[in-house]
Amino acid sequence: MAFRPLVRPAAAAETRCVTRHRLHPAWLVAAVAFVALVGAAGFRATPSVLLHPLHAEFGWPLATISAAVSVNLMLYGLTAPFAAALMDRFGIRRVVAGALLLVALGSGLTVGMTTSWQLILCWGVLVGLGTGSMALAFVATVTGRWFVHRRGLVTGVLTAGGAAGQLIFLPLLAVLVRDHGWRMAALVVAVAALAVVPLVVWLLREHPADLGLPAYGAAEVVPPTPPAGGAAARAVGTLAAAARTRPFWLLAAGFAICGATTNGLVGTHFVPAAHDHGMPETTAAGLLALVGVFDIVGTVASGWLTDRVDSRLLLGAYYALRGASLLVLPGLFAGTTEPSMLVFVVFYGLDWVATVPPTVALCREHFGVSGAVVFGWVFAAHQVGAAVAATGAGLVRDQLGDYAVAWYAAGTLSIGAAGLSLLLRRPSGEAPVARPVTVGRRAWSYRD
Question: Which domains does the chain have, with CATH numbers?
């Protein structure tokens, strides 16, 4: 399988006149995808509020309950490339609807569980597979099919849906667990997942060509090309072909470091590290939630910049700035929330997943129509990096008594990721050009 840069031919003729204005259906597809992504993020984050209630009721060790979360995290990453291939073969609508049904099944079945392996099966396997099918590879598929103009901005908005999902669901679920028990929270997740299914089936379209339209900002209608072979074979074949290229390893290595320095280290160990320095856990958790708020702003802004600035330069800047912030973090911990820590939270939050829009753009630039599947594998590397860092930082804390070495190592790795990003070279070929669109005898001007 050979990869070529995605190049679209210029329009044969300029649009003669504009006869009508209407909202391009790509925006409706993006809105439905955003709802699904918000839900997926909230569903995946739910086990964090069930940890202590399950321990109190069943007496299971926290390590056993955490194993379900670990399985969930790994499947969330490893499912992504196969889900992207399944979307190419069977359609976005079927895969996302099936994923929501898996989440509803996994969450709903937990109310009757009696042993710990059932928790691992339900929250680890079923919910992990379901949310993994609506991970960032889903974002790459939607934006790759429906957008040429403003693709980076839409990628940023959809990626920010992940942070929004946690901000929306976690406080609600925490209140439900406190007032009505963990079973009510699990049932609410199941019902919420089922409620999104009709919306997906009704409004989530597959390709703009199915409506006789080009993608938003494209010059012509491009009929979808049916993929050859099975979805699993395509996912593995795409990996085998991509692994023979230098850009894949540079992107995968950088994104593995991204996962290690966000979900794996800060997301998992920031609260206990702050508590080691005398800060109350509730205060530290509030700071981490504030990171999520600024994450939304930073990711949307990164998407806007991706449409205007070389993605290699953006990634280099993001990783370098993240590395610098992590290197100074050990000196910022204190028993109270000092202004310097607030500056870190704002700065780090803006950078949290700002790396996603330029990484998606580079996958599509280097691997063309296979870019979504390739990004799925790059995202799998992200989750592997997160898992390794989560365990490694815990070992550092156990052996040395504090997290300082972990923070310094993460900062150094981030600066290394900046260098990896700058080593990427622009592939040969012209960049896609957005032009006015003529469909049949009518000229359409799409408003935003």
Answer: 24-213 (1.20.1250.20), 237-423 (1.20.1250.20)
